[in-house]
Amino acid sequence: MSPMGIRLSPLGLAVFCLIGVGVIYHLYAGVISNRLAAFRQIRTVDLRDLLAVSVEAAVLGGTEVKKVREENNLNEKSKGKTKEGVNELLTLGDLQSHRKMFNLISNTFPEVTVNSEEHDNTVDKAAAWSRVIPTDILDKIEGGKDVPADSVTVWIDPLDATQEYTENLVKFVTTMVCVAVDGKAVIGVIHVPFTGFTAWAFVGQGSNMSPRSSYSVSPPKAIVSRSHSGKVKGVVLEAFGNSTTLIEAGGAGYKVLSLLEMPSSETSSMDQADIYIHVTFIKKWDICAGAALLSALGGHMTTLKGEDIDYSGTPVNEGGLVASVGVDHEALIKKLEPEKH
């Protein structure tokens, strides 16, 4: 054999190739890893855009809710019973609204976690944001409010107050969207389908709502659930006295709006309350939007023990709630003394 000739066996050739691949891998693995990390880091969402989409979704869902009710085509069925033994109803209005709202938000922000009260496999890939930002949002909120997409959880209630919806008590009905960032309610939208009014808020940035000029808590007007009340009446009367006015109403969204200054066009159909109390389990899609609205206006929504509610993870809030604005929230908590109940 020539002294310059090198002949590799098949095994040697294989080992040589593996060594070469290993060298290349080590050279480029770090580069690839860094580029993937950079790609993940730029997956952000502008919260002003998400607010605009949330408003559009709530209005679209509300259109479906109103249409089904006016056509009297509810097709209602039971989803089961609550812990209080109350039937949880599902109607065509719930489903049609869910499909519009869920698909619009999911298609626009596919990297964001979206939780809805309803579950349906109907996919509408054509559902797309109009790219229109309402004028009142443009006037009050600047763009560029970017946050990591994986820090965002969206909660949708396609039809709040379904029980009342089936009874044609439509003033209680709302559609709601809430955006939570790292578990804190940051954006809240509550749309009233049968009047067309939409309340929105972005915590720390602005809102189209405001508190009323005065509230009373000696005694208060307390708004409570008419269909999922549990022991709330006894709890409220024991805490604030027998002269307390109890307002029974449907829908968590409606109850939050009852605490706020409403446009004159809405006041004739709205109750006015000073505080909102709930003592049984309640789902986060029911309360997250209201929590954001109140927080943006200097108010509070906490558990009965005064704890902040985490709007991520499980959909169930087990600690009841106290909601207020314009009053001493800590004083309300002390009067309620939940450990007694």
From TrEMBL:
Pathway participation: Polyol metabolism; myo-inositol biosynthesis; myo-inositol from D-glucose 6-phosphate: step 2/2
Keywords: Hydrolase, Magnesium, Membrane, Metal-binding, Transmembrane, Transmembrane helix
SUPFAM superfamilies xref list: Carbohydrate phosphatase
Top-level division of the source organism's lineage: Eukaryota
Reported cofactor(s): Mg(2+)
Molecular function in Gene Ontology: 3'-nucleotidase activity; inositol monophosphate phosphatase activity; metal ion binding
Broad class of the protein's primary localization: membrane
Repressor keyword on record: no
Catalytic activity: a myo-inositol phosphate + H2O = myo-inositol + phosphate
Protein's cellular compartments: Membrane
An example Gene Ontology CC term for this record: membrane
Gene3D superfamilies: 3.40.190.80, Fructose-1,6-Bisphosphatase, subunit A, domain 1 (3.30.540.10)
Biological processes annotated in GO: phosphatidylinositol phosphate biosynthetic process
Claim: Repressor is one of the keywords in the record: no
Membrane-topology descriptor: Single-pass membrane protein
Family designation: Belongs to the inositol monophosphatase superfamily.
Protein name: inositol-phosphate phosphatase
Organism per entry: Cottoperca gobio
Lineage per the UniProt record: Eukaryota, Metazoa, Chordata, Craniata, Vertebrata
